[in-house]
Amino acid sequence: MSKTKSQSFQDQARRANAQKSTGPKTEEGKARSRVNSTRHGLAGKGIVLPPDLAEYVEEERRTFVPAHDRTDPLSAAVEDEAALAIARVHACRAARVTLVQEHWEREQEIAALELASKLPEQPRLISRKLERTFLGVAWKLERFYNLADEFKSKGHFTHEELSHYYDLMGRHPLDRPPAGEAKFDAEDFKYLKKETRRLEHLRDEVLGPLEQEVRDMVALGVPIDEMAPTRLLRRYETENWNKFVKLCPGMAARAKRLPRAQAPPKAGKPSAKPEPSPTPPPPPPATPPPPSPPAPSAQPAPAAQPAPKRDHVLTGAATPVVSRDEAGAPSQRLERSRGGGEGMTVIEVMRRRFSKR
Question: Exposure string (b/e) for 192-228, b if CB count within 10 Å is 16 or more?
Fold first, then answer.
């Protein structure tokens, strides 16, 4: 019975405490509470966004060329989703450039140290992977320099130093001499110096000049020697870009077809061309005076008649000039022309001249 009473008392105490901490009450407090769990706003449904990203989304929405009906819920939703997607794409690209410019060396160093921690487990594989990056080669060179200094000072290696030397050289444990017979002498030291020169050439002549180019390519989104944060940003960028591409046809289909605005008529000029005013008829000419009777004179000699026109083809008699040949009538102007055949009609001559030979 006492146990039941104690449980009921605890339940009442929990309820009383719950009434004291119910979270924010006002809308401003609720909005701040929602933003607390938001990390970057580059993923998710976009219900809650950081202030800078929300402002950027609104700017992208205003830059859309096709006008949408904001009173239509579906058109507004399509436009908002497209604006959110393209704003996230630009935000991912800007964040990737900033990350590469400010944290490239630190992130690359962290990646090299994480890889070097696995060297005793897989010496051959990890040793080759370290040589793919500038800072990985620098880490191996630092270890070889330390081993060379230890050998010069003591003249021999300890068991741990010898094991680390074999790891750096990428030798598998089964390929190493037994623990009791393993030793490091002057011949091995020459080989260590030779390996050091090879890594220095790789760092200074190969990876060093390419370091800036690799940084630029990673900033552009090329998946080469990228860091974990840039890899995540590239994934967010790809997802939002694919979403934006899928929404573009829907935006084009729901764009408002606004009629073209009529240009207002210019001031001082009528919009339509005025009709010309009727021209008044000319006044009737004055009545000329009656001509005086001509004086009797001698009759003039008749003018000479012009010579009959001769055809440029014919060489004989003149032919009267006619405007055109009648259909079916013998041609008077095609005699002795190319194609020959006196007495042929115009249709026959044209058919013969332009027929395929």
Answer: beebbeebeebbeeebeeebeebbebbbebeeebbbe
pLDDT confidence of 198, banded at 50, 70, 90?
very high
Does residue 140 contact residue 199 with C-beta atoms inside 8 Å? yes
What is the spatial distance between Cα 128 and Cα 118, in angstroms, rounded to a whole number?
A: 12
- Please, where are the H alpha helices in the chain? 2-20, 27-36, 51-62, 73-116, 123-130, 134-154, 159-169, 186-201, 208-219, 228-253, 346-354
Report pLDDT digits (tens) over 15-56: 777 777 666 667 666 656 655 556 666 777 766 677 778 887
Judge whether 221 and 234 are in contact, CB under 8 Å: yes
Report d(CA 285, CA 46) in Å as an integer: 92
CA-CA-CA-CA dihedral for 261, 265, 267, 269, to nearest 10? 170
